[in-house]
Design a protein that fits this description.
single chain, alpha/beta, 6-stranded parallel sheet, 30% helix, binds alpha-D-galactopyranose
Length: 663
């Protein structure tokens, strides 16, 4: 990642802007209202291909020139999108074959967005041409501050089964394995006699038969690579015309696994950027936001990242679209900044009257500028101005790393498992929540990241792991660190083959245990541990080889056998959790492990208060966000940049309030 120049001098604030949907007088009003709110960056042109190229091969940038000039006059910088998420209808008419096909061979219908097969050479040619014309045209324009490649690549077109995709998948597999014998060995095609005789026989795995898990995992990798190919092609063209402008694309990082492998894409971004939408009915949506932020930081090597989209109110794609609770707009926006974002951007600036998302919230709602949303947005603009000195600082004092790998999630959902219900991130999210509640900051890292400098490494449900990454975890423990590995980790290798000799495979020796058999529990079942804790959903029948038993199973089929173990390893220790503990029990385990590893919270806080520190060599800022309905407090000293008030020793935090303390 070559860290490009940040697009704005202060924290970036704004959103997606689609002036092509509005008459001139509305656009003029937008400029005044953007200035009133403190907007300094907007994303322009995401869906504007048809405006730039109204007919095949006829280019017209008059509208764009006018918009860039107008925004520039108003002091607003532009994150300019390549319009490749929005295929013009004339292109669908000329080339219906570019539409992606589902697993039944049915093409998507034209009319939405991202209506193209990631491997289509026809689409690549047309998209390369518009990107080239666009980048050549705007090069040197002072309003253009960065590039936004396409939009949410893979959002709707990530898994294509058309003939071209099939051919490209065969080529990808050939390149990866070299010989058909190697493919058969890697995927274990001897099972059910599915052995291939030639690369010609390989197809994209579809839901129409029970495919081989190795083949399914490789199809996910291939699909991610195909979309990355589009990003690279566009970036290369852009870089020829505007070599100094940073280039990114908006990720959709959540809990994972994601639609593409963002951690493996991140090094190709000049700034890593995310779109994050909370799910209203999730009572822990602020923690979901924190988890995504911690993942983004893990992908940016700790450098500031960009929040490119979130919602000012409700989304519109859920069954029931809950809006933000009072104060949540501010808490969510500053929650992203607390975790390392140097921007607060929305989808979108002005709510659309028409189109699929006509009821999606916006910074400027249908009600207009005399609205609570817009007045909150103006207040937020003021807050970002007041805290602008945090820009460029990094989240600091992080002592806990959590390992995450999209491939582990993809492997978990490929083929049949002892329980087919868990999603990969279940364990990660539960543990992250325990730490979040204790104001302990976590870097959620790609599984291959360097671990030096951390005190505790958490390995939650890392189903797939390479020998090398597992070895790094063991070396971390030997060097004095504390490791926690949880159930269903280390089970398969990178080709999705089970590691034999006992579970948890790659981590068995480090942990000093041998788990022989999984004992999932029925839906309403739970078992007790001999220290009073409870487990649901998952238990194991295991023995210790070289570890101490922290707690054993006291009821159920594996009663009398170890459930949680700890092994002293070199100067450190390695804990194994073989059960899916309930929330209270997991919290108590977290307390034990935090004590064992001497990990400290960012600050002492009352229940429900989020605390994260950002600092530079010369400054330190403590973000405090009270997510609870009760008044709270934090032990901290300094000036609250939002209010200007000085605090000594203790900051009072009214229910729902936020403080940013310059320490
Ligand atoms: C059936 C099949 C076996 C195996 C088992 C277990 O009995 O004949 O090949 O698939 O189910 O699923
Ligand atoms: C995504 C897209 C936006 C918009 C929003 C809201 O993040 O990038 O164009 O559709 O979702 O639904």
């Amino acid at each position: 990642m070559t860290m490009g120049v940040w697009p704005t001098s202060g924290l970036s604030f704004g959103g997606d802007y689609s002036p092509e949907q509005w008459p001139r007088e509305v656009v003029i009003e937008d400029m005044a209202l953007m200035r009133e709110a403190g907007v300094n960056l907007i994303t322009l042109g995401v869906f504007s291909w048809i405006v730039h190229e109204p007919r095949e091969g006829q280019f017209d940038f008059t509208w764009l020139d006018g918009m860039l000039d107008l925004l520039h006059e108003n002091g607003i910088r532009v994150d300019l999108a390549t319009p490749t998420a929005a295929v013009p209808m004339w292109l669908h008419r000329l080339h219906p074959e570019i539409l992606p096909q589902d697993e039944f061979g049915h093409p998507l219908a034209p009319g939405g967005r991202l209506g193209w097969c990631p491997s289509s050479p026809v689409f690549r040619e047309y998209s390369a041409r518009i990107v080239d014309k666009l980048a050549a045209h705007v090069a040197g324009h002072p309003a253009v501050a960065m590039w936004h490649v396409s939009n949410e690549l893979g959002g709707g077109n990530a898994r294509c089964h058309c003939r071209v995709s099939n051919d490209c998948f065969k080529a990808w597999v050939t390149h990866r394995y070299g010989s058909i014998e190697a493919v058969n060995a890697a995927w274990g095609m001897a099972f059910w006699g599915n052995t291939y005789s030639s690369f010609e026989e390989i197809t994209t795995p579809s839901g129409r038969t029970a495919h081989n898990p190795g083949q399914m995992l490789d199809f996910e990798r291939f699909s991610s690579d195909a979309l990355l190919g589009q990003y690279r092609a566009e970036k290369e063209i852009i870089a020829r015309h505007t070599p100094d402008l940073p280039v990114t694309t908006n990720f959709m990082v959540g809990l994972g696994p994601d639609v593409v492998d963002y951690a493996r894409w991140a090094p190709e971004m000049d700034i890593v950027a995310n779109d994050h939408y909370t799910y209203g009915p999730d009572p822990l949506r602020h923690q979901d936001l924190a988890f995504a932020g911690d993942r983004m930081r893990g992908m940016s090597d700790g450098a500031p990242w960009m929040l490119l989209e979130h919602a000012a109110g409700s989304a519109s794609w859920h069954q029931i679209n809950l809006s933000k609770k009072p104060g949540e707009r501010i808490r969510h926006a500053l929650g992203h900044v607390a975790r390392g974002s140097d921007s607060v951007m929305y989808f979108q600036w002005r709510a659309s009257r028409s189109g699929t998302e006509q009821f999606h919230s916006a910074m400027l709602p249908h009600a207009g500028a005399s609205s609570r949303i817009f007045s909150d947005i103006c207040a937020l603009g003021g807050h970002l101005e007041r805290i602008s000195e945090v820009k460029g600082t990094r989240v600091a004092g992080v002592q806990v790393a959590m390992l995450h790998d999209n491939e582990a999630g993809w492997a978990l959902r490929s083929g049949l498992k002892p329980i087919n219900s868990p999603s990969y991130a279940d364990s990660a999210r539960a543990l992250h929540n325990c730490l979040f509640e204790r104001a302990v900051t976590v870097d959620v890292l790609p599984a291959w990241s360097p671990l030096g400098g951390y005190k505790l490494v958490v390995v939650p449900g890392l189903f797939l792991v390479s020998d090398e990454n597992a070895r790094a975890v063991a070396e971390f423990a030997e060097a004095g660190g504390t490791v926690l590995v949880t159930w269903f980790s280390g089970i398969v290798d990178p080709v999705n083959t089970v590691r034999t000799g006992g579970f948890p495979g790659a981590f068995r020796e480090l942990l000093g245990v041998t788990s022989e058999e999984f004992y999932p529990l029925d839906v309403d079942e739970s078992v007790e541990l001999d220290n009073g804790w409870r487990a649901k959903r998952w238990t194991e029948f295991m023995r210790t080889d070289a570890a101490d038993v922290v707690a054993g199973y006291a009821s159920g089929d594996v009663a009398g056998h170890p459930a949680i173990t700890r092994r002293t390893v070199g100067a450190g220790s390695a804990w194994y959790l073989s059960a899916d503990l309930d929330e209270a029990s997991l919290g108590e385990l977290a307390d034990l492990i935090l004590a064992d590893s001497a990990v400290r919270p960012a600050a002492l806080v009352s229940r429900g208060v989020e605390a994260v520190r950002r600092s530079s060599e010369s400054s330190s800022y403590l973000f405090l966000i009270n997510h609870s309905d009760d008044d709270g407090w934090a032990q901290a000293s300094g000036v609250d940049l939002l209010t200007g008030l000085a605090h000594v020793g203790r900051v009072e935090l009214e229910a729902g309030s936020v403080a940013v303390i310059r320490e």
